[in-house]
Amino acid sequence: MEASRVKPGFNGVAAAAAGSTGSDGSRRLGYTGAGAAGGGGGGRAAPVDACGVALRAFVLAATLVAAVVMGVDRQTRTIQVTITDTLPPLQVPVTAKWSYSSAFVYFVVANAMVCAFSAVAVAACRRRGAAVALMVGDLLALALLFSAVGAAAEFGILGERGNSHVRWAKVCNVYGRFCERAMAAVIVSLLAAFANLVLLMLTILNVHKNSTYY
After folding, report:
1. Where are the alpha helices (DSSP H) in the chain?
2. What is the pLDDT of residues 114-164, one digit of tens each?
3. pLDDT digits (tens, 9 = 90+) for 174-198
4. What is the largest CA-CA distance in the chain?
5. CA angle at 50 for the pair 45 and 54, rounded to the nearest 5°
6. In angstroms, rounded to a whole number, what is the distance separating the alpha carbons of residues 100 and 137?
7. Bridge partners of 94?
8. How many CB atoms lie within 10 A of CB 86?
9. CA-to-CA distance for 57 and 59, rounded, in angstroms?
10. Which end of the chain, N or C, is less surrounded by CB atoms within 10 Å?
């Protein structure tokens, strides 16, 4: 009866523990390629991926810039308010600030969270055992960035064009500088989101290339 072959597990630990070898005498890799190191621990240093590190650094810098630009965005304009025709119009200072919009608040918080994660990821990217955790974190960061960009862009378009159906007047003709800075932050965050998408795709392809599970 032919001896049964051990199929490697998700992280290759089972294959390494059983000491299974291929037909050429080499040890089979697991899903993440960790089993090829003879039971290498999670703290063992992985080869440096220059492209991945560069993309993570770009995401870190871009999300930091987006959060800061949106976080300091405010503009005060003086609006004339006419109460009656017999009285002179009142000069009322009105301030537009990012914290007055829940969409902009979510944008700042999401970019700050992704920036913090990117800083941790850059420091932990050489740890082989952190590969799966970083991949899950990249997926969550991608969802955060695209949802934040969508919410902030929708609010910005509403401020630029208004909505005649519900009689919401546009405000960017009054607070032009405020809207310009907000949209600049949205564009930078969108670039970070696409960079994070490319990083996640490269990570998945790299894991698949180094795996013999399939």
Report:
1. 13-18, 50-71, 102-124, 131-161, 176-209
2. 999 999 998 887 777 777 888 899 999 999 999 999 999 999 998 888 888
3. 888 999 999 999 999 999 999 999 9
4. 106
5. 120
6. 29
7. 77
8. 5
9. 5
10. N
